[in-house]
Fold:
Amino acid sequence: MGILRFRIAEKQEVVFSTAYVEFLRSSTATKNISIPYSNGSGQYLISGTLLYTYLTPGNDGYIQITSSSNQTLSGSGFLYVNMTHTVSSTQVNQNVNFTYDSSPIIIQVSYNSKPIAEDIIKDIDNRFIYTFINVDFTDAYSDYDLDSLSEVRVLGDVTGYELNGSPYISGQWIPMTDISSGNFMYYALDQDMYYEKNNTWEAKDVNGNISN
Amino acid sequence: MPNLKLKVTGYKRTSVDATWENHELNGTLHPTLDDNIDGFSINKIIVTSIGSELFIENNGITVNNGDEIPMVDMNNGDVIIYFTHVFSSDLFFTAVGDAKYNIRLTINSIL
Structure:
């Protein structure tokens, strides 16, 4: 009698490498993440497939990870996912661990905060050219992650302000190196009467995050 | 979004003609100052520079650079400026209130 033998091949498990993403604290955002993989053997995901969820929408710490497209995992490549995350103001870095097709996936999540800028009020003399210095801005700046102040900008009617010898353009970003070099000035009006020059301003930290 | 506010100090020049007494180059002056400048209420002055020929007292107490004088003292006649051997001398002070004004008070002696 002949032998009927089935040889069951060992399951090829896809292998995922660690992926990395950064989120802003005190915000909810969705980011697209590319997770490297190897040993794909044709696993198929439909766009929107839920891969991981934690807590419920609107709550600090909420995470939802879904497949961002219809995709087949073959050989080596990237698993494309969307990660929606609600972050508290004090969230610390963490690893998000889950599995797909019994294979572990790790996403290392780091966090940063927007810097905080506060009011700046200065007394200057009329008919006087005021040259801004670093502390004019750094004294009104703080950052949860201690990121340093990289750039500032002034908005509104900026008549009288000059940057590098030319009229300043509202909203133009000014590197702190220009402030340090004395390149940002205000020309007080040639008049006797007291007046106030009112504008708003924003700060940008070294990570590119912009203040309130 | 936070504010960036520049408060630009106003500037006023005022001159006072003082009469010499007894044809001597000295005398006294009781300065007064309007407590409203350009619509801004002023409540005190801060003396910033006193001409060398001038000497100031407020209620009998010597006033030096950096001292404050309430407007009520100015306008009660409590402030006396003594001047000696002067044809013209300057007193600089800052008037402070709802706005800030740098003021130059020039004393010109006349016969």
